[in-house]
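Notes to self after the Tuesday call (sharing in case useful).
The group wants a holo model before anyone commits to mutagenesis around the pocket. I volunteered. Ligand is 4AD. Logging inputs and output together so the record is complete.
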Amino acid sequence: MSVRRSSVEALLSSQELDREVLVKGWVRTRRGNKYVQFIAVNDGSTIHNLQVVAAAESFPEETLKDVATGACVAVRGQLVASQGKGQAVEVQATEIEVLGKADPETYPLQKKGHSLEFLREIAHLRPRTNTFGAVLRLRHALAFAVHQYFNDRGFYYVHTPIITGSDAEGAGQMFRVTTLPDQNPPLTDDGKVDYKEDFFGKSTNLTVSGQLEGEVAAMALGKVYTFGPTFRAENSNTARHLAEFWMIEPEMAFFDLQDNMDLAEDFLKYLVRYALEKCPADLQFLNEQYDKELLARLQFVVDNEFQRLTYTEAVDILKKAKQKFEFPVDWGTDLQSEHERYLVEKHFRKPVILTDYPKEVKSFYMKLNEDGRTVRAMDVLFPGIGEIIGGSQREENLEKLEQRMQELHVPADELWWYLDLRRFGSAPHSGFGLGFERLVLFVTGMANIRDVIPFPRFPKNAEF
Ligand code: 4AD
Ligand code: MG
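Result:
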């Protein structure tokens, strides 16, 4: 008789006891004495381990020796009510097969309690820790929730290019994509690298944002979103920046800035609520292990309205603040993360949406306000994170857009297709970008963005 393999998750929540089961997973710990061994098995389906009880007399000493931390095992046995504390059920093993050994002398996760910094150096093994298991399951749940949210509301998922021929958005420094040889590349008459000879016949880069292409789709499909990798080569060695990160960018025809803010707030609350509902065990673990206020903070975001105010109002508050800032605040300067965090964490003590920034500190495509000085921008600021969303209403007027491009030296000839959207059937529209890892950072309560993506890319790091 052959039993089908069950997940640890399914077994731990099973009401059907006293039956034969088969489970496969990785050994987290093994303890016991010469009569009985207790083996904690985890297969990634849940943060909880399954306790396997093995009577020493039933197994060759060789087998039990190989059932070491990190080894992969297949266990057949009886699922029974557990005698011990800490678990409702356990498996009384009748057969144990070691599928893959792990030498206790060299297995890097032999002991518990490694630092997150150390774990970053073994990115290929850290998913086997409780912490990264929890983070990766939450990351999955949040990604799934993004698609669920938009699909339920009539948005279409569009795939914008990763290799881009326009480097005009100015959202960040770009990574070049080329097949030209690095030794003696073809040169033009005036001694520059001749990109006409390159794969695409021009110089190309990795995208910093799918927005401009998202606008193309919104001007045909109405409500769209992108969810893809984006790349920024800025040398920001911070706990909130990655060189490769994932961004969600909805773009909606006929939405003004107000609609855009309403969507952003509803979307963020939905995502946090989804995580609270679908991943209680993982969040409980992270709450206990890393951040005792995590669950309370998540619930607070779901339950409270975000504070909305203009940049100008924010600057007034910051100027009156008793706190000394490293960077002085004055109308016209971009806000630093210390200012954003003061507003969110000290002044309002809740998420904040700042709007109507000076045009000088924002991108060329944002819609100019009547005052001629500010643009219809919005940044959503979160506790512990700072900016989690950046967005705006877009300039739909051709002349005004061309004027802004000229002022900011954005090459109009490269973006002819973007300008065409304003030439043919232009419409008011808005959108925003949510940094997916900043979201995961917030929801997991981790402190460093490098710990919420499986293989982080940051300056001087691309080992895995
Ligand atoms: O504010 P940003 O640069 O906006 C855009 O790229 C627009 N095109 C979005 C749009 O309107 N469609 O980036 C949006 C968000 C930020 O708020 C932040 O959460 C995240 O992307 N982000 C980063 N996350 C991790 N590492 C980085 N280097 C990031 N840069 C931006
Ligand atoms: Mg921004």
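Two things stood out.
The pocket of 4AD (ligand 1) is lined by residues 171, 209, 211, 232, 241-242, 245, 247, 249, 387-391, 431-433, 435, 437-438 (CB under 6 Å).
The chain has a mean pLDDT of 96.
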